[in-house]
Write a structure and sequence with these properties.
The chain has helices at about 1-15, 25-55, 55-65, 80-110, 120-155, 165-180, 185-195, 200-205, 205-220, 225-250, 255. The protein is mainly alpha-helical. Helix 3 (about 55-65) crosses helix 4. The chain is flat. About 20% of the residues are buried.
């Protein structure tokens, strides 16, 4: 009797776990998408307004790697200074609003998830913002200063430098945003594994290709041709891939169903 009761309880739990919201038509999906986009845009605008209030401090923060080597920015077009203020406000505002924007993304995809999968909302938001900030910080405190010293004080020591706002802002954003996005690799693996697109076995089997790709990226962003320095940049990204394998094992559907993940 106890075994039968347990079986019935598990069956009910399995059924309730798969209870989803009522089906939505295409127009209802589009209307929901429009609502989430509008809410995200509102949060982004509010973040930009907040960042604009602190734009002078943000500009000083942006120029700090240059100021440390005795260089300052110059501009060649009357709009350059205004454009930089807008870019800084947009980037800082997007970062400040990112938890709220990510929550809108989650609200859009949540109806298609099982009840157990929806509990990942807080870890998802915390990990996404945390990993991006970690990658951006790694770029700002390690990659950017090293690149500037080698490129400006090293290769450019025999020339007079004139670093413009447009060139520096593009260089700055390519490093900061590039590393911030690349550190989101575990989040990408999280979703691919949750929907059964990749498995931990597949990721582990192809780790040699991942190592090759990581070292290619490290060679591109590394300011020095020294292989030891390149390893310093490659190790964090490779660690994130290994972390992603663990995440895939944790959320893969076959594990939740008690089956062995497919290759």
């Amino acid at each position: 009797m106890v075994d039968a009761a347990d079986a019935i309880g598990k069956a009910r739990a399995a059924v309730s776990e798969r209870v989803e919201l009522p089906g939505m038509s295409l127009m209802e999906h589009l209307d929901e998408l429009r609502r989430r986009v509008i809410h995200s845009a509102i949060f982004l605008v509010l973040g930009m307004i907040l960042a604009w209030v602190f734009k002078d401090r943000l500009l000083m923060f942006l120029q700090l790697p240059l100021l440390k080597i005795g260089k300052t920015l110059v501009f060649t077009h009357p709009m350059d200074a205004l454009n930089l203020n807008l870019q800084v406000s947009l980037l800082a505002g997007a970062i400040a609003a990112s938890p709220f924007i990510l929550y809108q993304v989650w609200l859009f995809i949540a109806p298609g998830l099982y009840q157990k999968e929806r509990r990942f909302v807080i870890p998802f938001m915390a990990a996404t913002v945390g990993l991006f900030l970690t990658g951006a910080s790694f770029g700002y405190f390690f990659v950017l200063p090293g690149a500037i010293k080698i490129l400006v004080l090293g290769f450019g020591k025999n020339f007079t430098s004139m670093i413009t706002i447009e060139d520096y802002s593009s260089f700055f954003l390519s490093i900061i945003l590039g590393l911030g996005v690349s550190f989101e690799l575990p989040i990408l693996i999280f979703f691919l594994a949750m929907f059964g697109i990749v498995s931990p076995r597949f990721l582990w089997k192809n780790i040699r290709y991942a190592i090759l790709a990581v070292f290619i990226v490290a060679a591109i962003i590394c300011p020095s041709p020294d292989p030891w320095t390149m390893c310093v940049y490659a190790i964090p990204m490779l660690s994130l891939y290994v972390l992603g394998i663990g995440v895939a094992w944790w959320v893969h559907p076959s594990r939740r169903k008690g089956k062995k993940p497919a290759a």
